Amino acid sequence: MKITVMTTDDRFITLDVDPDESVENVKALLEVETSVSLSQQQLHFNGKEMRNLDRLSSLGVKDGDMVMMTPQASQASSSDLRLNSDGSAMNPGAFQQQIRSDSQLMAQLLQNDPAFAQAVLGDDLDHLQNLLRERHRQRLELRRKQEEELALMYADPFDVEAQKKIEAAIRQKGIDENWEAALEHNPEAFARVVMLYVDMEVNGVPVKAFIDSGAQATIISKSCAERCGLLRLLDDRYRGVAVGVGQSEILGRIHVAPIKIGHSFYPCSFTVLDAPNMEFLFGLDMLRKHQCIIDLKENVLRMGGGEVSVPFLSEKDIPSLIHDEERFSKQASLGRGSVPETSGARERIADMPAQTQASGTPPNDRAQGADFEAKILKLVELGFEREAVIRALTLFNGNEEQAAGYLFGG
């Protein structure tokens, strides 16, 4: 296509150019025709300045259009291009124009630092100033690290403090490399993991059930049990305290109630906790009883070995009141094994009936029989305290193997 350029001396020059030609190449053609250097040219179309990296077609220049050439504004003074102590420009407008006029520098910025290049090409000077400050801070931090590394390199090899710093620097370097490798190969590790919830009905009332295979028992809060019409069935002989990272009061037990998962009904037992941050937790006892499968590939919970499946809820479907899963699961989870040795604590459940805690004698007939006493003696011979053995056997309804596993694990 052909365009006409009106020059500074009121001449008209016709150029045969490609629609996708860059403004910089048009200026190069005009430099040959007018002897005005490329850096001294400023082209305008429809009253707007044409930048060197722009394409004619993107500016709307068509065959037969006219472009105005004016002298480039005088170069900014050296004081206008100086930077403040925080890295920002004293005259951000002049600084921006100076970088824009250098096509080679702009090309490098677009390739190496596109965010800064876009700030230079944009109209938000505050954003440009903030980026300049950020780049200045990064340069200072890099220089500080380099100076520290250099100082350590020439440090006295017999200086204990210097050797500690060298060791810390080597360790930090390994951590940084590990972090970079994780960013590249395992970026999902830095994302928030949504806990597993499914829709259930407890005694006909819809609830959002937290699926937790690390919790020993299935737990329902007092408020949820009341809403589901189950609080009247609370057996307060099973009062106690659930102790873990946090502590919650066990109000008792509801021995059986129907839950609906998908289109099927299942019997379920609940431990009732006074835990305001937790509504309903479906624990390992019921997961085992109903042969559940946590299928993370298909993102479903399968019941009865797969005969019924329900999808896990997405984050948007989980009410905000129960988003703090980690805190309440740590407070409410029962029998998860040990916490770090420094705490000197073990997570455990103290949900024996009140008379058991007072006298050390199980309340039911099975616990009082000779068979139960024989199991106690057998486990005591393994080195466990009699009181701990009674609690474990009571907890597992006299199952000797499960009680032994609990005692060895606790």
From TrEMBL:
It comes from the Eukaryota. Its main location: cytoplasm. Transmembrane segments: none annotated. PROSITE patterns: UBA, UBIQUITIN_2. One of its GO terms (molecular function) is polyubiquitin modification-dependent protein binding. The keyword Protease applies. Residues 1-69 form the Ubiquitin-like domain. Keywords: Aspartyl protease, Cytoplasm, Hydrolase, Protease. GO terms for biological process: proteolysis. It is found in: Cytoplasm. CDD domains: RP_DDI, UBA_scDdi1_like, Ubl_Ddi1_like. Residues 331-367 are annotated as: Disordered. SMART domains: UBA, UBQ. Residues 369-410 form the UBA domain. Belongs to the DDI1 family. This is Protein DNA-DAMAGE INDUCIBLE 1.
